[in-house]
């Protein structure tokens, strides 16, 4: 596509960044999606962003479905993401007078199947957390880290960026900076406090050496852990204790929400603890809990077995 379109894309991405409407991962995805759209327009002979209409959009969806460059069928969720990015892009262009019509405005994205979050049952979570060998420094750190992730429903990005000054041990609260730099306050229970203090006093101080940064969870060289590193530690421990499942860090967040709701927590409280902007995002966990109730009912009620 021409330089004018590329310039419009860069201004749009800068606008999203300044407005805190997307993480760095989201902005990278926007850039890829818009670049794909520009390649399509160029291939079809369009020279300006105001030229495409609703028919062009339908042709673009067909183009995405075929994925001519890979020969693979694209998922409905990926198409929905493309359309969302382009709808936002054209809304921006329309707002600043660069186009008069948003051809993506009233287009419905392909229906996405609801994904039920994967979570651990309480006994599985307890098995995972209680099976670290806390005679070893690395296991002391891992126990504290995973205990806190479950205690507070942390994303992996939140746990690896957690700073010492964000933890209030007196009131057992942690200040979390989540997506879009939104902050929330989450309490943690006594056991998480005990494990965290032991790690800080016995392990972190030893590993820090001459470094002076404030990141809580570090490796033996005093450097902050990475999200990939946390994933590896989780998988390695699961294999070591014979858990026959693939674990990923977000399962701890899902488990946090599901277990709270199972034990009577109010949905809006869980929304606040997770840092969700919309209640509808949190409601998926209600379906998880309801599903568990249904399966328990069917296995326990004598008439349901007939």
From TrEMBL:
The keyword Cell division applies. Residues 115-298 form the Tyr recombinase domain. It is found in: Cytoplasm. The active site is at residues 155, 179, 250, 253, 276, 285. It comes from the Bacteria. SUPFAM superfamilies: DNA breaking-rejoining enzymes (SSF56349). Keywords: Cell cycle, Cell division, Chromosome partition, Cytoplasm, DNA integration, DNA recombination, DNA-binding. The keyword Cytoplasm applies. Its main location: cytoplasm. Residues 3-94 form the Core-binding (CB) domain. Forms a cyclic heterotetrameric complex composed of two molecules of XerC and two molecules of XerD. Site-specific tyrosine recombinase, which acts by catalyzing the cutting and rejoining of the recombining DNA molecules. The XerC-XerD complex is essential to convert dimers of the bacterial chromosome into monomers to permit their segregation at cell division. It also contributes to the segregational stability of plasmids. Belongs to the 'phage' integrase family. XerC subfamily. PANTHER family: PHAGE INTEGRASE-RELATED, TYROSINE RECOMBINASE XERC. This is Tyrosine recombinase XerC. It comes from Massilicoli timonensis.
